[in-house]
Amino acid sequence: MAEVMIKLDNVCKFFGEKQVLRGANLSVEKGETFLLIGRSGAGKTVLLKNIIGLLRPDSGSIFIDNVDITKLSNKELEKVRYQFGLVFQSSALFDFLTIEENVGFFFYQHTNLKKSEIRKKVKETLALVGLEGIEDHYPYELSGGMKKRVAIARAVIYNPKIIIYDEPTTGIDPIAVDKVVSLIEDLHKRLAITSLVVTHDLEVGMKISERIAFLLGGKIIFQGKKDDLKNINDPRIMQFLHGSSAGPIKEMEV
Ligand SMILES: Nc1ncnc2c1ncn2[C@@H]1O[C@H](COP(=O)(O)OP(=O)(O)OP(=O)(O)O)[C@@H](O)[C@H]1O
Ligand SMILES: [Mg+2]
C-alpha cells in the first residue's frame, strides 16, 4: 500500500456561525500530485491553510507524515510548516526585496548561512525553474509568469516534503501557463515531491495530477483517480465538470 503523506479525518472549520468545512476527509499519498477542485468559496484555501497549520480546525485530525498536527503546540506547529513549500494564489513576493532576497528568504531568516552560500543556492534554484541571472532584479521588473516561477523557486529551495500550489496558473497568458505546468511536472519528477494543487483550470489540473478530490458543501464528495472522475455519474460532479448553471448545485451553494 502507498504511504500516506497528508490525511484529513473528519475536519470541521467554523468562522463564527459559518461552517466552511463539515467533516472533510482526504488522503494524499507520498510522492503523488493531487488535485483539489471545488467552487469559489467552497473552502479550498481554508482547507490548505488547515493542512499547513496557518488555521486550526475546530474538530477532526490532520496527519502530516503520520503526525497529528492538531495536537501540536504553536511552536511545534511552526516546525511542521517548514515541511511545506507554498505557492500562493498571488505570487506574494516582497516588492522591496530583490529576487535573490525573495528566493533565499528562508535561509536569510532562519539560518546562519553566509551570503555567498545563499546566493549559490538561489542561483541553482533559479536555474531549476529556468530563470538564470535575475538575482539582482526586483519583482516589479518581471512578468506575471516569471513571478510565478520565482514563487515556485522560493517554495522548493529548502527541499520541502510537500509543495502546496494554490492557483499556480491564474492570471498569466497561455504560454506562461504551459511553462508553469511543465515546471510543476518537471519538479515532481526530479524532486519526487508530494504536491497538492488547487486550481480552477481543470485542463491544467487534470494534466498534472494523478488523483483528484472534489470539495462541495464542506465535504469531499469524490476522491479518486482522475479517470474515474470522468466515468462517475454523480450529477453534481457532472455539472461542475461541464461548467453548467443547470443542475443540482444551486447558484449560492458552495
Ligand atoms: N479568515 C476568515 N474569516 C472569515 N471567513 C473566512 C476566512 N477565510 C475564509 N473565510 C470564508 O470561508 C469560505 C471559503 O473561503 P476559501 O477562500 O477557502 O474559498 P476557496 O474555495 O479557496 O475559493 P476560491 O476558489 O475563490 O479561491 C468563504 O466564504 C470565505 O469568506
Ligand atoms: Mg482559494
What would a concise description of this structure say?
This protein is of the alpha/beta class and 254 residues long. Helix content is 37%, strand content 26%. The chain has a 6-stranded mixed β-sheet, sandwiched between helices.
What does this structure look like?
The structure is a single chain. By secondary structure, this protein is α/β, with parallel strands linked by helices. It has a domain at 1-83 and 208-254: Rossmann fold, CATH 3.40.50. The protein is 37% helix and 26% strand. The chain is built from ten helices and ten strands. It has helices at 44-51, 74-81, 99-103, 105-110, 115-128, 144-156, 174-191, 202-208, 226-231, 235-242, and strands spanning 4-15, 18-29, 33-38, 59-64, 67-68, 84-87, 162-166, 194-198, 211-216, 219-225. A hairpin with a 2-residue loop joins strand 9 (211-216) and strand 10. Helix 5 packs across helix 6 (144-156). The chain starts with a strand and ends in a 12-residue tail after the last helix. Bound molecules: adenosine-5'-triphosphate (ATP) and magnesium ion. Adenosine-5'-triphosphate binds at residues 15, 20, 38, 40-46.
